[in-house]
From TrEMBL:
Domain GST N-terminal: 1-82
Name under which the protein is recorded: Glutathione S-transferase family protein
PROSITE patterns assigned to the protein according to its UniProt record, in alphabetical order: GST_CTER, GST_NTER
Organism: Hoeflea ulvae
Alphabetized CDD domains for the sequence: GST_N_Beta (cd03057)
Ranges for domain GST C-terminal: 88-207
Length: 207
């Protein structure tokens, strides 16, 4: 047993956490969630009552959920990896701002797009189609906002941060985002990193 256990699901947001762990180079165990029912077991709900992956269990005690929060915690634990720029710098503030923007806007829109029935009390085919349509519009708008901030090829210029990996992950869920030149260039550069491409393949991204 290692110091970290990642609960992960193919195609899910646990990809960016696995990429971060691989970038850090720390050993970790992996527990695969194969279907949503496994998230509803008492054992899993004790880890994350929200019944969602990713979850990162640290042998030292903490159980972490919420993708952006896990990445910030890993950056605090392993600052030498530079998942994010150093504390107190304007570059870090910008990277964290966009990381939170994506986690708070684009990720939830992707969930509305793929699981519209979960976002309406009494669904109908028409209502769910409307939710999907609006979610796609929201993602188009928010990726366009993000793209204007990208210096190229990465958000902050020549140096990749975990915010770029997060953006690439979300873009894999929303094909129109990859038509934006800034995002297309970012995704291809992000995938040149072997740690990221390993996690990407493991999670079945790019299929
Ligand atoms: N805000 C959460 C969202 C996590 C989330 O919604 N994860 C999805 C997979 S991408 C999930 O576990 N859904 C439950 C399910 O598939 O039943 C985060 O950033 O970690």
């Amino acid at each position: 047993m290692t110091g970290y256990t990642l609960y992960w699901k193919a195609g899910s947001g646990s990809m960016v956490v696995e990429a971060a762990l691989r970038m850090i180079g720390v050993a970790f165990d992996r527990v695969e969630i194969r279907h949503s029912g496994e998230l509803q077991t008492p054992k899993f709900l004790a880890l994350n009552p929200a019944a969602k992956v990713p979850v990162l269990v640290c042998a030292s005690g903490p159980v972490l959920a919420e993708s952006a929060a896990i990445l910030l915690a890993l950056d605090d634990l392993f600052p030498e990896t530079r998942l994010l720029p150093p504390h107190g710098t304007p570059a870090r503030a910008a990277a964290v701002q966009w990381l939170i923007f994506m986690a708070g806007n684009i990720y939830p829109a992707a969930l509305r797009y793929y699981y519209p029935a979960r976002h309406i009390a009494r669904g109908s085919g028409e209502a769910e189609a409307a939710i999907r349509q609006q979610a796609a519009i929201d993602m188009d708008r928010d990726f366009a906002r993000f793209a204007t901030a990208v210096r190229g090829p990465f958000l902050l210029g020549p140096t990749m941060t975990i915010a770029d990996v997060y953006a690439a992950m979300l873009a894999d869920w929303h094909e129109p985002a990859r038509e934006l030149p800034e995002i297309a260039a970012m995704v291809s550069h992000v995938l040149e990193n072997p740690a990221v491409s390993g996690a990407w393949r493991n999670h079945g991204f790019g299929a």
